[in-house]
């Protein structure tokens, strides 16, 4: 029997990893394998998911739709081999989390048409997580948002607690104008992996009109860069907060994503930070460190920003004020 693959996509910071953590936390079996694709030299999301589910694997550094489709194929086939040899537990389904900049059309195309993949796996469905607070802005600024929405079998609206009902309704109407067939769900309606796999979404719709980037959009997509900022000693939260707020004020919408784990003087345990564009969300305290050296590491994904300037400003601030 072929194995169902469900793809979870959505723009940077929309809440994909949070959703997957929630699903796995409320699922009392290990029959689901999770593959997470991240941008940047340091993978953070898969480490967060591994705290609730060991069957979580990181795909190679790079955007899945651009550079690691071969790695996706190899990873899926390797899972089958490892299962056959008893190196990993038996699994009956796969969840793939893409980067926030992925165009799902290329991923769907690989699973549907690759000779080695299509006889072993099939696309069960594609869920796109849409940030209810920033969806309108992202639709205007980022071509990736449109391709992710148009390719979806299901839209999952996240962060609905941060906006009023009329804003949610306007965003839902915009999505349905773009994709009339799509099913729209709220993130609080989905609690476990079974909720994702309960209906064969790909069979229900004459989906999809997955779009590849136009030439102008490809150029913009290619201009996206990532970097990792690292600090080996403890950071002062007030100093770091001042730096990050000045950075967001200066570059604003060009800072697509910030995610990091900090070693702060004020706390013994690591602190997770994450933000999207102008919005920096409340920090979260983690129970344990995901890496042994306890260094602070921040992954930044930007567009039309000089990364060297960011690195330089971070270094100057931390050296002078810490």
From TrEMBL:
InterPro entries per the UniProt record, alphabetical: CobW-likC_sf, CobW-like_C, CobW/HypB/UreG_nucleotide-bd, P-loop_NTPase, Zinc-reg_GTPase_activator
Domain of life according to the entry: Bacteria
GO CC annotations, alphabetized: cytoplasm
CobW C-terminal domain boundaries: 224-318
GO molecular function: hydrolase activity; nucleotide binding
Swiss-Prot/TrEMBL keywords: Chaperone, Hydrolase, Nucleotide-binding
Pfam families recorded: cobW, CobW_C
Catalytic reactions of this protein: GTP + H2O = GDP + phosphate + H(+)
Function: Zinc chaperone that directly transfers zinc cofactor to target proteins, thereby activating them. Zinc is transferred from the CXCC motif in the GTPase domain to the zinc binding site in target proteins in a process requiring GTP hydrolysis.
Family of the protein in this entry: Belongs to the SIMIBI class G3E GTPase family. ZNG1 subfamily.
Protein name: CobW C-terminal domain-containing protein
Organism (species): Acinetobacter bereziniae LMG 1003 = CIP 70.12
């Amino acid at each position: 029997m072929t194995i169902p693959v469900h793809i979870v996509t959505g723009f940077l910071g929309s809440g994909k990893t949070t959703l997957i953590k929630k699903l796995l936390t409320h699922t009392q079996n290990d029959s689901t394998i999770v593959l997470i694709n991240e941008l940047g030299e340091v993978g953070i999301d898969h480490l967060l998911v591994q705290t609730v589910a060991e069957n979580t694997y990181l795909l190679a550094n790079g955007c899945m739709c651009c550079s690691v489709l071969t790695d996706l194929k190899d990873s899926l086939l390797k899972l089958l081999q490892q299962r056959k040899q008893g190196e990993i537990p038996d699994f009956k389904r796969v969840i793939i989390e893409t980067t926030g900049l992925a165009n799902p059309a290329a991923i769907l195309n690989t699973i549907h048409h690759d000779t080695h993949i299509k006889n072993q796996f099939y696309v069960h469905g594609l869920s796109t997580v849409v940030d209810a607070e920033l969806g309108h802005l992202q639709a205007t600024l980022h071509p990736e948002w449109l391709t992710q929405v148009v390719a979806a079998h299901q839209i999952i609206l996240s962060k609905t607690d941060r906006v009023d009902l009329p804003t949610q309704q306007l965003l839902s109407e915009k999505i349905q104008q773009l994709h009339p067939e799509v099913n729209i769900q709220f993130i609080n309606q989905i609690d476990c992996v079974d909720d994702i796999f309960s209906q064969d979404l790909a069979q229900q719709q004459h989906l999809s009109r997955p779009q590849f980037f136009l030439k102008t959009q490809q150029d913009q997509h290619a201009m996206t860069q990532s970097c990792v900022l690292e600090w080996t000693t403890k950071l002062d939260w007030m100093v770091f907060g001042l730096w990050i707020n000045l950075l967001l004020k200066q570059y604003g919408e060009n800072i697509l994503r910030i995610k990091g784990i900090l070693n702060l003087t004020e706390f013994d345990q690591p602190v997770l930070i994450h933000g999207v564009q102008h919005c920096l969300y409340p920090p979260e305290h983690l129970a344990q460190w995901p890496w042994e050296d306890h260094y602070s590491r921040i992954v930044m994904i930007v567009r039309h920003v000089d990364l060297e300037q960011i690195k330089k400003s971070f270094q100057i601030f931390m050296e002078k004020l810490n």
